[in-house]
Write a structure and sequence with these properties.
Shape: elongated
Largest sheet: 5 strands, mixed
Order of helices and strands: HEEEEEEEEEEEEEEE
CATH architecture of the largest domain: Sandwich
Strand content: 35-45%
Radius of gyration: 21 Å
Distance between the termini: 38 Å
Number of helices: 1
Number of strands: 15
């Protein structure tokens, strides 16, 4: 297990639970058989999407070759091909554009793409031999990275930029108000189980009040969308 800071609210027990689960996974030695599924809420804005264009990769045979991502973001430089969770898959639009979605903590990451031939894990057949590695700094906003195989300067990170709005009061009894939402297109509200409770579609609205009087007491998560991306927050219903 690796010491990694979490980004949960003070007093939240998620980090403790994650550590207990991690210790059990380590003890049972089932790291390569474990799949993590992040919940709606705290982790939902931390998805990061990596795309690599294999069109001009030579040699590359999609009938025998798989594409893996390796690096500090891939289980601490796990050997490429050894953990299936880090295998990219072709996109529907272009069979030579491979993609993968990762859930990353905020921070600095190094990575590189590798060809895995006939399913054999190997450090060979990377984009190039040795250094340098691709480098990426992430925060808690969704990020899309478009790379081209073997071209280290071709990466085009696209960040869903933060935007400002106000949500009040919090905690709330009946009316949850949003203001400064001129360019907001949609608001989703989820309960703690990840169930979508309500969707509000918006168009050219400066402010809105949502009646949550019928909500049960507890914590709810909110996703606010505009053309720049999505931001997540939470509120407490008294």
């Amino acid at each position: 297990m690796t010491n990694t800071p979490f980004h949960y609210c003070p007093g939240c027990g998620h980090g403790i639970v994650h550590r207990l689960i991690g210790e059990v996974i380590d003890e049972l030695g089932i790291q390569d058989k474990t799949i993590g599924v992040p919940p709606v809420g705290c982790a939902v804005v931390m998805y990061h999407y990596f795309n690599v264009d294999m069109t001009d990769a030579d040699p590359f045979d999609p009938t025998t070759d798989d594409v893996y991502i390796g690096g500090s973001l891939a289980n601490g430089w796990a050997q490429p091909g050894s953990v299936g969770a880090y295998m990219l898959t072709p996109t529907d639009d272009n069979e030579f554009i491979y993609t993968i979605t990762l859930l990353l903590n905020a921070g600095d990451h190094m990575y590189k793409y590798f060809r895995i031939i006939n399913g054999e894990p190997s450090w060979d057949n990377g984009e190039w031999s040795g250094d340098p590695n691709r480098e990426l700094t992430t925060d808690t906003l969704a990020l899309v990275v478009d790379d081209v195989w073997a071209l280290i300067d071709a990466g085009i990170p696209s960040v869903n930029q933060p935007f400002s709005y106000s949500m009040y009061p919090n905690p709330v009894n009946s009316l949850l108000n949003f203001s400064g939402i001129n360019d907001v297109t949609k608001i989703d509200i989820f309960d703690l189980t990840g169930k979508l409770i309500r969707t509000i579609n918006l168009e050219y609205t400066k402010e809105i009040s949502i009646n949550v009087n019928d909500f049960q007491s507890g914590v709810y998560f909110v996703k606010v969308y505009n053309n720049s991306g999505v931001q997540a927050t939470k509120f407490i219903k008294n």
